[in-house]
Amino acid sequence: MEIHNNVTEFILLGLLMKEEMKTLCFVIFMACYLAIFLGNFIIFITITYSHLMQQPMYYFLWHLSFMDPCFTSTIVPRLISDLVATRNTISYNFCMTQLFTSHLLGGVEMFILVSMAFDRYVAICKPLHYMIIVNRQRCNMLILLAWVVAFWHSIAQLFMILRLPFCGPNQIDHYMCDSKPLLKLACTDTHIASILVIANTGMVVLATFLVLVASYIIILYNLRKHSSEGRRKALSTCASHVMVVLLFFVPCISTYILPPRFLNSDKEFSVFYTVFAPMLNPLIYTLRNTEMKNAMWKVWSRNLSLRIKIYNYLLIFFSYFKWS
User: Fold this and answer.
1) Structure confidence by residue, pLDDT tens digits, 133-142
2) Alpha carbons 297 and 270: distance in angstroms, whole number
3) Who contacts 98 (Cβ-Cβ below 8 Å, separation ≥6)?
4) Read out DSSP for 59-119?
5) What's the Cα-to-Cα distance from 315 to each of 33, 38, 300, 302, 318, rounded to whole Å?
6) Neighbours of 216 (CB within 10 A)
7) CA distance linking residue 150 with residue 110, whole number of Å
8) Of 16, 36, 35, which is closest to residue 26 (Cα–Cα)?
9) What is the pLDDT of residue 262?
10) Nearest CA to 291 among 132, 101, 61, 38?
11) Residue 7's pLDDT is what?
12) Which of 105, 88, 71, 93 is CA-nearest to residue 14?
């Protein structure tokens, strides 16, 4: 069946409708975006130049600290620019690109969190076999699997939207292009498509979250066999991961588990997993982690050549923006 599209661009209504709040939100979200890059950059460099890179838990955290800025960069720059723009239009092709990349990178981040939970489960429940089960080859396979699964999820999401005709309204009640607000604009019956969105995103996120909850219940049960010092250390590490999981998964479930007609708070919920969770991840993983704080001190206080190299990169970076 041939698909007719009269819409060549969409209008993003954004996060806020009140003009007087936009300047304040511009400053807040710009500060959040810079904090996301700075915090995750510090963790990424710390793990790269320390012994922590050899440990599976920090190897997954290294990937997560790279994915956080990548994921937010598909959404937040557009959100920030639209807060000061007079007309918030986005082309049809760019809208579809944002839909695909945000679901791809968000999916990879979600499955990295699953891999981190698997690592903690093996470390606590099967400590004697930990280095055999969670070796570097298996870690790489889990990262590759995260990319493959996220790719097929985002491809399915994209093809489902591409098959819909858009011939009338073009105002998206959101600050980004996503499947649920786009379904409301399609000039055809979207009942089947709505079910597919819930199945492809909502149910997947919910099932993954329940698996993570079950894994941590098992971990807590097995902690009874450990010493008080071992329990304290394990609970400290797991608590950080649980906080990150809750920040990411609970808003995702609230956004995608309901049909598109329940759209009232979707964009407010999505701020948590697109902005706040990536910003708070570095704080959560460092403030409660003595090993990470010690590694940060060693890397950033003693490695003079690294500081000089980063300083030169920053000079080049800011010089580029000055002359561009």
Assistant:
1) 999 999 999 9
2) 34
3) 74, 75, 78, 90, 176, 177
4) HHHHHHHHHHHHHHHTTHHHHHHHHH-SS-EEEHHHHHHHHHHHHHHHHHHHHHHHHHHHH
5) 20, 16, 18, 21, 5
6) 19
7) 9
8) 16
9) 61
10) 61
11) 78
12) 88
Closest CA to 100 of 216, 179, 191: 179
Q: Which residues pair with 165 in a beta bridge?
A: none
Q: Give the pairing of strands 9-12 and 171-172.
A: parallel
d(CA 234, CA 14): 42
Q: How far apart are CA 146 and CA 244, in angstroms?
A: 18
* pLDDT score for 312: 67
- The DSSP secondary-structure symbol of 128 reads G
Structure tokens at 240: 């950080």
| Residue that is written with structure tokens 């069946």 in the block | 1
In the chain, the amino acid numbered 230 is G
Q: What residues of the chain score a pLDDT lower than 70?
A: 1-5, 16-17, 230, 260-265, 288, 302-324
What is the enclosing helix (H) or strand (E) of 12? strand 9-12
One DSSP character per residue, 145-186 reads HHHHHHHHHHHHHHHHHHTS---S--EESSSS--HHHHHTT-
pLDDT digits (tens, 9 = 90+) for 183-204: 888 888 888 888 888 888 888 8
Burial class (CB in 10 A: 0-12, 13-18, 19+), 180: buried
Enter the tokens of residue 67: 């994915």
Q: What is the pTM of this model?
A: 0.88
In degrees to the nearest 10, what's the CA dihedral of 30, 14, 162, 250? 70
Name the DSSP letter for residue 129: G
Which residue is it, tokens 């649920």?
A: 180
* Contacts for 142 with CB less than 8 Å, ≥ 6 apart: 60, 111, 115, 118
How many residues are there in the chain?
A: 324
| Percent of the chain topping pLDDT 70 | 87
Residues 186/165, Cβ–Cβ less than 8 Å: yes
Residue-level pLDDT at 74: 93
